[in-house]
């Protein structure tokens, strides 16, 4: 069964990519619009820094590294989950999710890989370019250890993003409606473009525990740069590394629970 899945997954991805690239001009114009949109967000941060020099003790290159890390982790994780799991609500409401359950294939794997969102290419291009500049500009001495931590933390943040989105989408299998939860997710996600220490203690706690999106941005980047991390302190590095795998296990358990509770189109 595992080998069957591994042979089919590349085919699903290839078919989806071909369908999305049918109108290449429109596709790349949309990616350019994404780059300009997120570029304007970063420009807003730059305006703040031009006025106040630092933000929560973070300099301009450090904030650029934070922003690019957050955007890259999100885009990689969301490409494997967001659009696919957002559409799960409609599949449940119309009853078409039932057809996935009778396929000799994992419903989750089919959803994710048959709808792999290459539309996040614009996010990735901007994030990688900005990250390259920030890595060269930040006042930090890189080493093999720090580079390894940076890459591992990025992978963990990507896994955490995908896990949280998967859990939100899977909730539709229980409640039918779950997309309103994405509004809460993105409300907190936008806060993680900024250092954790500029927020009140209550929000800091939420961003580390209930909605742990700070673990995809300021916690790993701050730990790398030696910034003081609220609440976690010296545990920040370890937590940033294990958060992704731990939340993946939680999301797997939640998916299985949700599919077990699913009663079909008839309710």
The count of helical stretches stands at: 14
The biggest beta sheet reads: none
What integer value in Å does the Rg equal? Answer: 20 Å
The unreliable regions are: none
Structure summary, number of beta strands: 0
Sequence of secondary-structure elements: HHHHHHHHHHHHHH
- Class from helix and strand fractions: mainly alpha
Mean pLDDT: 86
The separation of the N and C termini measures 30 Å
**Percentage of helical residues?**
over 70%
- Principal-axes geometry comes out as globular
- Give the percentage of residues in beta strands: under 5%
What does this entry look like structurally?
It is built from 14 helices and no strands. The model has no long low-confidence stretch (mean pLDDT 86). It has 267 residues and is mainly α. The chain is globular, with a radius of gyration of 20 Å. Helix 9 (144-170) packs parallel to helix 14 and helix 13 (218-225) packs antiparallel against helix 14 (236-261).
Features:
transmembrane helix, membrane, 14 helices, single chain, transmembrane, about 270 residues, globular, mainly alpha
Furnish the topology, listing elements before pairings.
Layout lengths: L1 H19 L3 H29 L7 H20 L2 H5 L1 H7 L2 H5 L5 H8 L6 H17 L6 H27 L1 H4 L4 H12 L9 H8 L9 H8 L10 H26 L6
Pfam family, one: ABC2_membrane_6
Protein name: ABC-2 family transporter protein
InterPro entries: ABC-2_transporter-like
């Amino acid at each position: 069964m595992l080998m069957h899945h591994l042979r089919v997954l590349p085919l699903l991805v290839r078919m989806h990519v071909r369908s999305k690239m049918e109108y290449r001009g429109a596709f790349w114009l949309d990616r350019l619009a994404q780059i300009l949109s997120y570029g304007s967000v970063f420009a807003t941060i730059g305006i703040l820094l031009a006025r106040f020099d630092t933000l929560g003790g973070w300099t301009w290159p450090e904030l650029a590294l934070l922003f690019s890390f957050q955007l890259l982790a999100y885009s990689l994780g969301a490409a494997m989950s967001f659009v696919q799991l957002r559409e799960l609500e409609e599949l449940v409401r119309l009853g078409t999710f039932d057809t996935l359950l009778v396929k000799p294939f994992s419903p989750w794997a089919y959803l994710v890989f048959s709808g792999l969102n290459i539309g996040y290419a614009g996010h990735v291009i901007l994030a990688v370019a900005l990250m390259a500049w920030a890595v060269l500009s930040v006042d930090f001495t890189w080493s093999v250890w720090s580079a390894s931590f940076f890459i591992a933390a990025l992978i963990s943040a990507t896994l955490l993003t995908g896990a949280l989105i998967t859990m939100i989408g899977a909730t539709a299998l229980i409640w039918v409606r779950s997309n309103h939860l994405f509004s809460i997710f993105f409300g907190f996600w936008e806060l993680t473009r900024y250092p954790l220490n500029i927020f009140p203690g209550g929000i800091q706690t939420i961003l580390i525990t209930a909605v742990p999106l700070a673990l995809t941005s300021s916690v790993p980047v701050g730990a790398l740069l030696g910034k003081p991390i609220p609440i976690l302190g010296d545990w920040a590095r370890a937590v940033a590394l294990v958060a992704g795998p731990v939340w993946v296990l939680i999301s797997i358990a939640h998916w299985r629970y949700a599919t077990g509770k699913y009663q079909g189109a008839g309710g």
